[in-house]
Amino acid sequence: MKIIHSVAELRRQVMSWRAAGERVALVPTMGNLHVGHLQLVEAACCNADRVVVSIFVNPMQFSDASGNGGDFEHYPRTFDADCAKLAAADVVFSPTVDAVYPNGLDAETRVEVPGISDILCGEYRPGHFVGVATIVAKLFNMVQPDVALFGEKDFQQLLVIRRFVADLCFPVKIIGVPTHREADGLAMSSRNQYLSRDERRHASILYQTLQSAQQQLIAGERDPAVIRSRAFVQLEAAGFRPEYVEVRRKQDLRIAKESDAAEELVIIAAAWLGRARLIDNISIPLRGID
Ligand code: AMP
């Protein structure tokens, strides 16, 4: 595995692979790798001849990137330990902030996906998905991969990426990888380390709440407001501060209506537990609905 920081060197490497007729996969990450990230790398190996893993903590997707001790500044950076986990990759690409945003964050061209960027997590984290779409578009142009892999844990992010790739005609196949969970069901996330020991014991209640909402839908409950308010009660009783719990159409995250019975649905949630903002989602198999 080779570590590359410069875009020019990365391009030379990718061009030589292409000249040899090899397919290239990209796994974009912000580092602090856990087993969930490594599943993406494994899936990448099955879908291409060469695998590039990018590690870049993207300031544009944090609202507090200018400092002041916020989430961006405190985001865990563990580059050497991450590289040690990436023996299966061909290249770890880790550009500097200046190389990615040479004009400064405020002056950069941005990618915005209307209708998806500003709902759910986008409502609580204004500008977040513009930052995500912009960095992923830049990485696609730097790496020029044939395929790119993203986790279904960040379901809204996956949809934002699928949409801009289609809308802007990027010749990249997007592959979603199922959420990797701890033994008790908690979705693995770099932010889980913000949980105290006591909070960690309760954290899987987020997934249990989604499972119970899934069961209610399968049992015939059709009123999203009922499902939402039961979920809020369950989460608040366990010490969470829920932002949203929503039943949405899986295809576009629009609000599910009665007439959407034939659509695949997803229950999607975000909730704070202590200092950690946790997100998760669960799909409703069509055949599960009567
Ligand atoms: P991040 O480093 O948090 O930006 O995540 C990089 C990629 O890993 C994203 O595509 C995430 O959706 C994915 N990812 C993070 N956690 C998990 C998980 N528990 N299971 C599957 N994919 C994940």
Percentage of helical residues? Answer: 25-40%
Q: Report the average pLDDT across residues.
A: 94
Report how far the terminal alpha carbons are from each other: 50 Å
Please report the first level of CATH classification, the CATH class of the largest domain: Alpha Beta
Order of helices and strands: EHEHEHHEHHHEHEHHHEEE
Largest sheet: 6 strands, parallel
Strand tally, please? 9
Please render the helix and strand layout as text.
Blueprint: E1 2-4, H1 7-19, E2 24-29, H2 35-47, E3 50-55, H3 71-74, H4 79-84, E4 91-93, H5 97-100, H6 121-124, H7 128-143, E5 147-151, H8 155-167, E6 173-177, H9 197-202, H10 205-218, H11 224-237, E7 241-249, E8 265-273, E9 276-284
Parallel strand pairs: 1-4, 2-3, 2-5, 3-4, 5-6
Antiparallel strand pairs: 7-8, 8-9
Helix pairs in contact: 7-8, 10-11
This protein binds adenosine monophosphate.
Adenosine monophosphate (AMP) is lined by residues 29-30, 36-37, 39-40, 150-151, 153-154, 177, 179-180, 187-190.
